[in-house]
Structures are given as structure tokens and as C-alpha cells.
Write a structure and sequence with these properties.
Layout: E1 9-11, E2 18-20, E3 24-29, E4 35-38, E5 46-51, H1 54-63, H2 65-70, H3 76-86
Antiparallel strand pairs: 1-2, 3-4, 3-5
Length: about 90
């Protein structure tokens, strides 16, 4: 019997849909309140996952979903970086 590799799933903080971790982008807030876009998925800190699409990023910004999830104010440049990544 072949062992089936389990795919880690994460929930998008905006759409509440569950996706494989690789399809989502992680935004991390450290204890110091430093917010970064975590491209490795391994950075230390409180993480929140977002579906990488322009509509979802804009909705996250408008609804402040990331601010609530990370318990910190997410700076404007983070959304700009996410939009850049979403648009390839």
C-alpha cells in the first residue's frame, strides 16, 4: 500500500473557503507588530491566509479581515505587495 501524502489545507480569512496551503498566500504579524508577506510559509508569528486574487485582496483591505485576524493594523504597503503578487 502506498502512503498517501496529506496535503495541508488552510482557510482564506476573506472567503472562508478551504484550499491547499500552496494556493494561498500567508501574511504574518510578529510579536513586535511587524507585518510581512510570508512567501516561504514558514515565518514565525501569527499567520493569516488569503486567496491570491485581486478581488479577495481588495475585500480583505476593505473589511479589515487581516487586521482582525492578525490583531494588528496591516500597513498599506502589504496590500500593495499582495496586489502585485495577485496580478502576477
Amino acid at each position: 500500500m502506498k502512503k498517501v501524502k496529506k496535503i495541508p489545507l488552510r482557510t482564506c480569512v476573506v472567503t472562508k473557503e478551504v484550499y491547499p496551503k500552496k494556493e494561498l498566500i500567508r501574511v504574518v504579524a510578529t510579536k513586535e507588530g511587524q507585518v510581512t508577506v510570508d512567501l516561504t510559509g514558514k515565518a514565525n508569528g501569527r499567520g493569516a491566509y488569503l486567496k491570491l486574487s485581486e478581488a479577495v485582496v481588495l475585500k480583505a483591505k476593505k473589511s479589515k479581515a487581516l487586521d482582525r485576524k492578525l490583531e494588528v493594523e496591516v500597513p498599506e504597503h502589504i496590500y500593495e505587495e499582495l496586489l502585485k503578487l495577485a496580478n502576477g
